[in-house]
């Protein structure tokens, strides 16, 4: 499965590039992104529903949550496209990196 780390440290700092990419995608589609805490809540919900898998939740530098997609990337993109419209740029990037056929 595809891995995209999204982390919130115990000090409230973001790590990884997922939140920034999320903000970019939403703004490109005319929507306002959620705040970091709300994104964390949604990621936890997606984990509970089997869409994401919590991979790791601690390190020597503080506690954080790291998630992995637990469904196919194609299925996840199909679901997002039903809400946001075409995500051709993301599909092309995934194909270029051989993550998506």
Explain what you see.
- This protein is an alpha+beta fold.
- Helix content is 45%, strand content 20%.
- The model is unreliable at 5-14 (pLDDT under 50).
- The strands form two sheets. Strands 1-2 form a two-stranded antiparallel sheet. It has a two-stranded antiparallel ribbon with strand order 3-4.
Distinctive features:
single chain, 101 residues, alpha+beta, two-stranded antiparallel ribbon, globular
Outline of this structure?
With 101 residues, the chain is α+β, with helices and mostly antiparallel strands. It has helices at 18-28, 36-48, 73-84, 88-96, and strands spanning 7-8, 14-15, 52-59, 62-69. The radius of gyration is 14 Å and the shape is globular.
- Overall geometry: globular
Structural class, from helix and strand content?
A: alpha+beta
Q: Helix fraction?
A: 40-55%
Strand order of the largest sheet: 1-2
| Uncertain regions spanning at least 5 consecutive residues | 5-14
On the 0 to 100 scale, the average pLDDT is: 78
For the report, how would you describe the main beta sheet?
2 strands, antiparallel
> Beta-strand level of the residues, as a percent range?
15-25%
Q: Tally of extended strands?
A: 4
If you compute it from the alpha carbons, what radius of gyration comes out, rounded to the nearest whole angstrom?
14 Å
First-to-last CA distance: 13 Å
Counted by DSSP, the helix tally is 4
Q: Could you state the oligomeric state of the chains shown?
A: single chain
The topology string of helices and strands comes to EEHHEEHH
